[in-house]
Amino acid sequence: MKHKTLPLLALAASLSLLLACNSADTDKTNPEVSVKAVQFRIARPTNQLKEVVNFYKEGLGLQELGHFENHSGYNGVMLGLPDKTYHLEFTQQEQASPLPAPTKEHLLVLYYDNEEEYKKANDRLQNYGAHPVEPENPYWIGKSETYEDPDGWRIVLFNGTYTP
């Protein structure tokens, strides 16, 4: 299924920096700083790989771009949007290990430039069984819906686009 989204995968503040640097050759405040990377991946561990992958594939509609099994004690899946040079990776060690809990401000934000597609994305998540949660930051109220994945990490579906 093709999704008409203008995605910004914002899992951490560093992601926003990478997007800004990836779209411009140099930092305007420091012309000697530049990022020449052509791809980036946001990776995080989970002890519920199957449940998390199902949430992002079935609930959000991301595509599986690749996976690996039994790689030095790890299994993992890469998910993303078609034809994009950035994606998410979820990994799980063979032996479950304690993981840091996310805060309510750890966000993955997906921006939609089409209200119909935004509504479809919300319907898809809710039909999957996810329900909106109250955002920690009031900025998101009235222009987006916030959800939690099986590990408690938050996903924001934003009705509109981001313009720096």
UniProtKB/TrEMBL annotation:
Residues 1-23 form the signal peptide. Coiled coil: none annotated. Keywords: Signal. Residues 36-160 form the VOC domain. InterPro entries: Glyas_Bleomycin-R_OHBP_Dase, VOC_core, YycE-like_C, YycE-like_N. This is VOC family protein.
